[in-house]
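Problem 12. The chain below contains 380 residues. Write out its predicted structure in token notation.
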Amino acid sequence: MDVAPAHLEYWLRDYYFTAEIDISCSGVENFCFGELRQLFNITPDDLDRIVLRDSRTLGDPELRTAIGNRWANGNAERVMATNGSSEAIYLIMHSLLEPGDEVVVLDPAYQQLFSIAESIGCKLKHWRLRFENSFRPDFSEARHLIGPHTRMIVVNFPHNPTGASLTPAEQDELIELAARAGAYLVWDGAFAEITYDSPALPDPGERYDRSITLGTLSKAYGLPGLRVGWCLASPDVLERLVRLRDYTTLALSPLVEHVATRAIENGDLLLQPRLAQARHNLELLVAWANRHHEFVSMVRPQGGVSVFMRVHGVADIEDFCRQLADDYSVLLVPGTSFGNPNHIRLGFGCSTTELTEALSRLSQHFHTYSGSKQRSAVAL
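Solution.
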């Protein structure tokens, strides 16, 4: 297997732990463990009783039940807890795909959702989300891409990095297209519960038995450091994933599972304040973008906490983002991490105080960067 470098991870590895303010990420503001202990009434005795033995391959029964109750209509048999949704993606693609298989993927997209399939030797067909169309999925294009040779369709709605989503009718059509092709539908629901103008879309697994839904505590719940994700799938698919997992991570930590179970059982205590903050931050961001239309254009996201802004007058977006990190200690993701060199991914899930300060510094950088380039052009 010759897998391509993970461009986003390489970029974040260089700056994630050194920048003062992070507006690069696609998740909400993180919680600290002290906040969790207070919210969920986790006592020292609760932690002292945890035995650090091996856990079950599909996940602790209490954790699977909590996930099933919240996201799988109470059916824990369809649940596998994983080390982040990234492990689930790896297991799914290596268990269900073979070289030469045809896989339909969104473009742009989080790289793990397509590069692993590509490294296996699959043939990728790109379903493009275009800025000119407000990143709306084009179903005439989808009907052309999805056919009898399609083995898997991989989507992420609300979408990372654009914030685009589907209507219920469009989700129905996507499920119908997958069913007609007999393809697996991998539905990445990492941002499913962060929506602004419409209710969250339902899990397609309730209507299509070859659907595999991904979830995580990293994005909407502010707990990326727990590294807890899951997939919802039929038991026969989960059995295929277990065969590979027996050779890799085996299971989660009982300590992590205990905290994750409490977090999911009390999920609204984490989700609702972060969703309210995201709504407020989004309005601040829209107002900022309107004031800086000479530098950026943006499509208002339907969900998630990131926007994929088009940047004007910047020839080298990586140089621009690198100088922002070095000179202003603000972290952005250049669009090259998503194959779009004239864009940036800007995350607005952080605290309002941090977002306000970061946007102020970004304004300064745009003016300074633009002025320096103009002076260089005159000198030449």
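Discussion. The mean pLDDT is 95. Students who got a different answer should revisit the alignment rule from Section 12.3.
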